[in-house]
């Protein structure tokens, strides 16, 4: 029985396969990975066309949830053993990782026209944006941990009072 692949995987495969996108994203030479050659153009042109958002970091997080790994330093190259050129039929075997409920916002910011970044590289800009996002998430998680610790103390206190009154 052939399993239907997730829409994210089908769309990603489709955009890599299209020859007109080759200067922005393409298969590696051996077809076992794909490379985003121009993250800025990928974000501004291809992501909105295929995914209705322009957030490269969100795209990378989505790849991670399906088990893709960044496979080269210095460029945005991603690999998954079941995501290969000429093997579209294997996409249905790729499963999303099970994880805790997300604290990510349910909606993404609309695309904005960007000026050329002041930094030397669009990769640096993307990493800065990802870093800011991770710092926000870390802050939210620390806040949740503090709330759970407080709740734990209250529960232990309550339990302690219950045990002491019933003996």
3D architecture notes:
It is a single chain. With 167 residues, the protein is an alpha+beta fold. The chain folds into 2 domains: 1-114, Orthogonal Bundle (Arc Repressor Mutant, subunit A), CATH 1.10.10.10; 120-167. The chain has 4 helices and 4 strands. A 4-stranded antiparallel beta sheet has the order 1-2-4-3, covered by helices on one side. The radius of gyration is 21 Å and the shape is elongated. The termini are far apart. The mean pLDDT is 84. Residues 118-127 have a biased composition (Acidic residues). Keywords: DNA-binding, Nucleus, Phosphoprotein, Stress response. Belongs to the HSF family.
In terms of topology, how is this protein built?
Blueprint: H1 7-17, E1 25-27, E2 33-36, H2 39-51, H3 56-65, E3 69-70, E4 76-79, H4 122-166
Antiparallel strand pairs: 1-2, 2-4, 3-4
GO molecular function: DNA-binding transcription factor activity; RNA polymerase II cis-regulatory region sequence-specific DNA binding
Keywords: DNA-binding, Nucleus, Phosphoprotein, Stress response
Region (Disordered): 110-129
Name the CATH superfamily assignment of the largest domain. Winged helix-like DNA-binding domain superfamily/Winged helix DNA-binding domain
Strand content: 5-15%
Q: Give the SSE string.
A: HEEHHEEH
Number of strands: 4
Tell me briefly what this model is.
The chain has 167 residues and is of the alpha+beta class.
Q: What features would you highlight for this structure?
A:
8% strand, single chain, Arc Repressor Mutant, subunit A, alpha+beta, 167 residues, 2 domains
């Amino acid at each position: 029985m052939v399993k239907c692949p997730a829409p994210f995987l089908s769309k990603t495969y489709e955009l890599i396969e299209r020859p007109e996108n080759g200067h922005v994203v393409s298969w590696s030479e051996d077809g076992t990975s794909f490379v985003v050659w121009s993250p800025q153009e990928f974000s501004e042109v291809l992501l909105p066309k295929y995914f209705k958002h322009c957030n490269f970091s969100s795209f990378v997080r989505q790849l991670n949830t399906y088990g893709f790994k960044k496979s080269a330093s210095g460029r945005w190259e991603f690999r998954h053993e079941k995501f290969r050129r000429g093997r579209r039929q294997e996409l249905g075997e790729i499963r999303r990782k099970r994880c805790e409920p997300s604290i990510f916002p349910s909606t993404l910011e609309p695309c904005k026209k960007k000026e050329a970044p002041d930094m030397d590289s669009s990769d640096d800009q993307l990493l800065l944006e990802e870093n800011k996002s991770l710092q926000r998430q870390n802050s939210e998680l620390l806040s949740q941990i503090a709330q759970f610790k407080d709740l734990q103390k209250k529960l232990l206190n309550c339990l302690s009072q219950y045990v002491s009154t019933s003996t």
